[in-house]
Design a protein that fits this description.
rod-shaped, mainly alpha
Length: 158
């Protein structure tokens, strides 16, 4: 009977899978953060465009409302600062995302190495099992041959 395959580093493989899964979650969180920030920047840019349109409309009016125009300018300045701050934050978060993706690639590489080792050991196990089965089969065939030969010899003597 063939012996069972046992990979001695199975615990290490499982730990590396857990590390991969954890790193995948970290990367997914970083992607969500970048996407959220990109959406925020897009909203701020749309607001800035809308404010610029309203500002131009207010300038074309017959009577200029200086307080309103000043308010539009202040709001546009605030939006511009928020966009700049958000872009800086986006650069930081994208750098973090790149770092986390590089870590994920390293974790994948380490897991792949141990899985490759497991595959090689599995193939060796299969080869060994096949060799053992051939040996058992050969032994059974030899015993049948010897039994038949003995029967033929007994028949010849009788």
């Amino acid at each position: 009977m063939a012996r069972r395959f046992r990979f001695r580093l199975e615990t290490v493989r499982r730990l590396r899978e857990q590390a991969r899964d954890a790193q995948r979650r970290v990367v997914a969180d970083a992607v969500r953060a970048v996407t959220h920030l990109e959406d925020r920047i897009a909203r701020l840019i749309r607001q800035l465009d809308d404010t610029a349109d309203r500002f131009r409309d207010a300038q074309r009016a017959e009577r200029l409302d200086v307080v309103s125009l000043r308010g539009h300018q202040i709001f546009r300045g605030w939006l511009t600062r928020k966009i700049a701050e958000s872009n800086e934050e986006l650069v930081r978060r994208q750098a973090r995302l790149d770092y986390e993706r590089a870590r994920l690639a390293e974790v994948w590489k380490r897991l792949k190495a141990i899985e490759k080792l497991r595959e090689r050991q599995w193939e060796r196990h299969l080869t060994e099992v096949a060799r053992e089965e051939r040996a058992v089969s050969d032994e059974a065939a030899l015993q049948r041959y010897m039994r038949r030969r003995g029967e033929h010899e007994r028949e010849a003597v009788a």
